[in-house]
Amino acid sequence: MAEGGKMAAGSGKMAAEAAVGQVVLPGDVLLLPARPGHDAEQLPLGSEAAPRGRLLCGPGLRRCAAGLLVTKCGLLRHRQPGGGGGAAAGGAYWVDSQQKRYVPVKGDQVIGIVTARAGDVFRLDVGGSEQASLSYLAFEGATKRNRPNVQVGDLIYGQFLVANKDMEPEMVCIDSSGKASGMGVIGQDGFLFKVSLGLIRKLLAPKCEIIQELSQLYPFELVLGMNGRIWVKAKTVQQTLIIVNILEACEYMTSEQRKQALAKLSGN
Amino acid sequence: MRETPLSNCERRFLLRAVREGKRLDGRQCYDYRNVRISFGPDRGCCVVELGRTRVLGQVSCELVPPKPNRATEGILFFNLELSPMAAPGFEPGRQSELLVKLNRLIERCLRNSKCIDTESLCVVAGEKVWQIRVDLHLLNHDGNIIDAASIAAIVALCHFRRPDVSVQGEEVTVYSPEERDPVPLSIHHMPICVSFAFFQQGTYLLVDPSEREERVMDGLLVIAMNKHREICTIQSSGGIMLVMDQVLRCSKITAVKVAEITELIQKALENDQKVRKEGGKFGFAESIPNQKITAFKMESAAVDTNNVEEQAEEIITKADPPSEVFATPILHAPGTAQIGEGIENSWEDLEESEREEEVEEEGESEAATSECQRMETEDTSTISKDKDEPIVLSDSEEEEVVILEPQEVPNKTRTQTTSKQENTSKKTFNKRRRKKRAAR
Amino acid sequence: MEPGGAAMAAAGCCLRPFSCERGLLSRPDGSAAFVQGDTSVLAGLYGPAEVRGSKESPERATLEVLLRPKVGLPGVGERSREQLLRQTCEAVVLGALHPRTAITLVLQVLSDAGSLLSCCLNAACMGLLDAGLPLSALFCGVTCALDAQGAIVLDPTTRQEQEARAVLTFAIDSTEKKVLMATTRGSCSVEEMQQCLVAAQRAADTIFQFYRDSACRRYSKS
């Protein structure tokens, strides 16, 4: 809460760099640093001599005349240019927000529930505003003769091939080389539950502490969908339920509270 | 909106968990979820939380003539609403089967069990009685609506105070809360519903099912009971056949749960009463937990309104003065009046320019049609721009005119224009257009 | 009835204690309870979700606002408030980012002790914020009452509203403090209206700071 008072009420205008890690609200404007060419005093250093890399404007931000307009409430994040290594040469700003409703994004890997089989496609509920379609040929090794065995109500882990605001989302269960690479129908056992999208992103982050700590308890299988759905399967019902409850509770727990809870569990 | 479908694996897992005596939230089969009761600032207003299921209850009263066959009894009216915010599947204003079933059960539980002394609600026999209305709103659906609703209803009724009345001869006086303390309703007993979900034809049972458990259950048994162990209503739905022992076991469990809940209700009512008496803080603001990070409070904040007058004055002086033009009313016929005759017709200006530059006008008129019809796409607007340049009459030009033709000119003209020479056809076309415009 | 009510009445330029809780309902995509003194409103929001045929728009998200009274069924008064609320929300929601979807905002009155419409506006904004819908700005609602002497009472109670000569409610946006919606009841001069507006704009600063502080607290653990 302490850092909250820094920005004036109402419309906040501040330099984007200074706001990183702070809470931003819709309507705030983030001012971008002037381009090196405009600033005479700043000497172009090495890599900066080339025109500045592209600046990626991530979720929750929009370009406006003064800089970046915040459209979602959350913490402002920034990735240094080049840090990601490669294609996106510029830095990326985005807002890390807690929300529940999923909006399909191309390339996202999600868990869908089959709601219908219509001709050549399956209809999948992915939690978005519209059902996604999945061709029965979009499975590894599927042919016209050899159809995958998918029933209504089954879970499917796949990724979006087409996802934009104007079109029906389309999913596939193969990567660009035609391999399943982990996607496809999820097993009949295990349990599915839903958490906020913010928590999913946290869990999917590389070297996520929560997953590492959990994996020390006992072996279990876990599928995380970007749409907030998690599928868990452990050896017993009890073990599955423990994982479910810990992950659900992670939403509002600090890491210390979580460690305490896990210590209690592993003690038993 | 569509409800999220239940996947096969969830169903299978839930049923397996039931067989093993495990529940999602770690409860035992016979455990009830936590009940939390908070009161609003008004009398007869409460929010009951049963786990994450949440119901708002509000009691109100009104003086009405009694029903003819019950001249000395007050009227009790219950209305449960499934608010669209409670679940994505609930639509506003739709009397779903579930809603009808729940409302009927609430009525049977509370009205037909005669828990409220309706005779004490009579003011003047046959003329004026109190109608007590209980509005219940489901705010969040996480299973077991009926238990939460029945608790909310009885809590709201216990919390409610109706205005005091006195009858002197024919005259009925209703006193405001300042004049005379409002009086509580006389409540004989407090019936509370307890739900049981059955699985596998009654082999397994769960008390207080959650929403996901409700979706996979085979049957539901609801028992309403008061703390004196009197059954007020009992309903089994879902078409399962229960053995007698099961029902007896359920009624025993109900007795225990009802005793617990009744105690909780009484404690909550006492607490609220105490706070009100002592003049402490009460109402929904007090029920918002302080320690949660999702909650936030602010004490009464002063707003500096010292020089608003000056600032407002400044704004007004800066603003343009309102126009002083007043149109005189026009009387077209006796009994009618109108002010002004609308804005001037802009089409006429076009007509004038047309006469001067017969050929060049094409572009402008096209732009004008696009404005008025709003059907023209960007392509046509670029065409019309091109036409501002000096134009040499050619076949291609003529074609463009013909493209527009069907929109503007009836088919008859089309046959005429094609039969004539190019140049003249254009003129007639323009004339036709002008006539049409004049007619408008 | 209200503790400290007399003190508040003396200093009319005071906002009652505010509190809010976000994400308190498990089912909706966004929810918030907003309390202003003894007035409280609960907002629940679904969206961007599936839209029903006739309401579908290829250009933008269809925004629907439902206001549920505590007693009885929604009437004309609720309908007109729904309109005002919907138009205010439409002004800030970037609906073009989610065409062919529906956003349903349900507001439930929990208790009405004056300034109900402004409390609805604040609850609606908190609900939109909690659901994470793209917004171009925030908005807040401020109700001003003009008493018989022409003094401004901010965030009036029911009694103050009844005694007032005019009651004005404004929705003010967070970026430029512009008026998104204004509705008045009773009679007041143009000057008085401007004065109320200026007072409302100043109160808006306090409310937006409240929004920001509550958001900071919300994200303090992540």
TrEMBL record, chain A:
Source organism's superkingdom? Eukaryota
Give the CDD domains listed for this entry: KH-I_Rrp40, S1_Rrp40
Gene3D superfamilies (UniProt xref): 2.40.50.100, K Homology domain, type 1, Nucleic acid-binding proteins
Does the record's keyword annotation contain rRNA processing? yes
User: Where is this protein chiefly located?
Assistant: cytoplasm
List, alphabetically, the GO terms of the cellular component aspect. Answer: cytoplasmic exosome (RNase complex); nuclear exosome (RNase complex); nucleolus
What is the protein name stated in its UniProt record? Exosome complex component RRP40
The record's comment on protein family reads: Belongs to the RRP40 family.
List where in the cell it is found: Cytoplasm; Nucleus, Nucleolus
Starting at the broadest rank, the lineage of the source organism is: Eukaryota, Metazoa, Chordata, Craniata, Vertebrata
- Native species: Cairina moschata (Muscovy duck)
Automatic annotation (TrEMBL), chain B:
Q: Known Pfam families for this protein?
A: RNase_PH, RNase_PH_C
User: Which segments constitute the Exoribonuclease phosphorolytic domain?
Assistant: 32-163, 189-253
Q: Chief location of this protein?
A: cytoplasm
Q: Where is the composition biased (Acidic residues)?
A: 348-365
Task: Provide the leader sequence positions.
Answer: none
Q: Which UniProt keywords apply?
A: Cytoplasm, Exosome, Nucleus, RNA-binding, rRNA processing
Q: Name one GO molecular function term.
A: mRNA 3'-UTR AU-rich region binding
Any one GO cellular component localisation term in the record? nucleolus
Q: Where is this region: Disordered?
A: 348-440
Ranges of biased composition (kind: Polar residues): 412-422
Write down the superkingdom of origin: Eukaryota
Listed InterPro entries: ExoRNase_PH_dom1, ExoRNase_PH_dom2, ExoRNase_PH_dom2_sf, Exosome_comp_Rrp42_subfam, PNPase/RNase_PH_dom_sf, Ribosomal_Su5_D2-typ_SF, Rrp45
A GO BP term here is: nuclear polyadenylation-dependent rRNA catabolic process
Task: Name the residue ranges with Basic residues bias.
Answer: 428-440
Subcellular locations according to the entry: Cytoplasm; Nucleus, Nucleolus
Q: Note the PANTHER family from the entry.
A: EXOSOME COMPLEX COMPONENT RRP45, EXOSOME COMPLEX EXONUCLEASE RIBOSOMAL RNA PROCESSING PROTEIN
Q: Which family does it belong to?
A: Belongs to the RNase PH family.
Question: What name is this protein filed under?
Answer: Exosome complex component RRP45
Q: Which organism is it from?
A: Cairina moschata
- Native organism taxonomy: Eukaryota, Metazoa, Chordata, Craniata, Vertebrata
TrEMBL record, chain C:
Name of the molecule in the record: Exosome complex component RRP46
Give Gene Ontology CC terms.
cytoplasmic exosome (RNase complex); nuclear exosome (RNase complex); nucleolus
Specify whether Nucleotide-binding is a keyword of the entry. no
Q: Which Pfam families match?
A: RNase_PH, RNase_PH_C
Q: Give the record's GO biological process terms.
A: nuclear mRNA surveillance; poly(A)-dependent snoRNA 3'-end processing; rRNA catabolic process; rRNA processing; U4 snRNA 3'-end processing
Please tell me whether the keyword Acyltransferase is annotated for this protein: no
User: Main localization of the protein?
Assistant: cytoplasm
The record's subcellular locations are: Cytoplasm; Nucleus, Nucleolus
InterPro entries xrefs: ExoRNase_PH_dom1 (IPR001247), ExoRNase_PH_dom2 (IPR015847), ExoRNase_PH_dom2_sf (IPR036345), PNPase/RNase_PH_dom_sf (IPR027408), Ribosomal_Su5_D2-typ_SF (IPR020568), RNase_PH (IPR050080)
UniProt keywords, alphabetically: Cytoplasm, DNA-binding, Exosome, Nucleus, Phosphoprotein, rRNA processing
Specify the Exoribonuclease phosphorolytic domain's residue ranges: 15-134, 138-202
| Native source organism of the sequence | Cairina moschata (Muscovy duck)
Q: Which family does it belong to?
A: Belongs to the RNase PH family.
Q: Name one GO molecular function term.
A: RNA binding
Listed under subunit, the entry gives: Homodimer. Component of the RNA exosome core complex (Exo-9), composed of EXOSC1, EXOSC2, EXOSC3, EXOSC4, EXOSC5, EXOSC6, EXOSC7, EXOSC8 and EXOSC9; within the complex interacts with EXOSC3, EXOSC8, and EXOSC9. The catalytically inactive RNA exosome core complex (Exo-9) associates with the catalytic subunit EXOSC10/RRP6. Exo-9 may associate with DIS3 to form the nucleolar exosome complex, or DIS3L to form the cytoplasmic exosome complex.
